[in-house]
Amino acid sequence: MKLGDVIQSADWKAEKHVPVINAPDSVKAGEKVTVEVCVGKEIEHPNTTEHHIRWIKLYFKSENSKFVTEVGTYQFDAHGESTEGPNKGSAYSEPWAKAVLKLNTAGTLIAVAYCNIHGLWESSRRITVE
Ligand code: FE
């Protein structure tokens, strides 16, 4: 078995676990570009002590390279935990993050999200560089 065998994918408009990557289709080489990654843009994912998104990782695969580069890890650590019991806490971190990148070659952004109950989900987005 390979890790890829258990990473699921689907259309993010229909499946709430799929990470959404918001980025321009095209950027200028070496210029700062803001990339937003999130889970639940169209259909909200639960955010409870028992069921939540723990993290999203973002990768970049240059079209000139065989290897992928890890760009960032975004951890979501608060899900209503409290001394009063589950879901009584005062803070919840939403699965939403912003990365600022500089790219020198075209390639593909790949996001992987982890739900503590439903495992790993991925999506990708092609980005060209002028
Ligand atoms: Fe889930």
The overall average pLDDT, rounded, is 97
Number of helices: 0
What's the main sheet like?
A: 6 strands, mixed
User: What would CATH call the homologous superfamily?
Assistant: SOR catalytic domain
Report the CATH C-level class: Mainly Beta
Bound molecule kinds, no repeats? fe (iii) ion
Kindly provide the radius of gyration, computed on alpha-carbon positions and rounded to a whole number of angstroms.
16 Å
Order of helices and strands: EEEEEEEEE
CATH fold topology: Immunoglobulin-like
Q: End-to-end distance, in Å?
A: 39 Å
The tally of beta strands, per DSSP, is: 9
Name of the CATH architecture: Sandwich
Uncertain segments: none
Helix content: under 10%
- The tally of structural domains comes to 1
Question: What's the overall geometry?
Answer: elongated
Main structural class: mainly beta
Beta-strand residue fraction: over 45%
In short:
This protein is mainly β and 130 residues long. The protein has no helices and nine strands. It is elongated, with a radius of gyration of 16 Å.
List keywords for this structure.
mainly beta; three-stranded antiparallel β-sheet; Immunoglobulin-like; 130 residues; binds fe (iii) ion
How would you characterize this protein structure?
It is elongated, with a radius of gyration of 16 Å. The strands form two sheets. Strands 1, 3, 5, 6, 8 and 9 form a six-stranded mixed beta sheet that branches. With 130 residues, the chain is mainly β. It has no helices and nine strands. The chain starts with 6 loop residues before the first strand and ends with a strand. The chain has strands at residues 7-8, 19-22, 26-27, 32-39, 53-62, 68-75, 96-102, 107-115, 119-129. A hairpin with a 3-residue loop joins strand 8 and strand 9 (119-129). The protein has a single domain, classed as Immunoglobulin-like (Sandwich), CATH 2.60.40. It is 0% helix and 47% strand. Residues 17, 45, 51, 115, 117-118 line the site of fe (iii) ion.
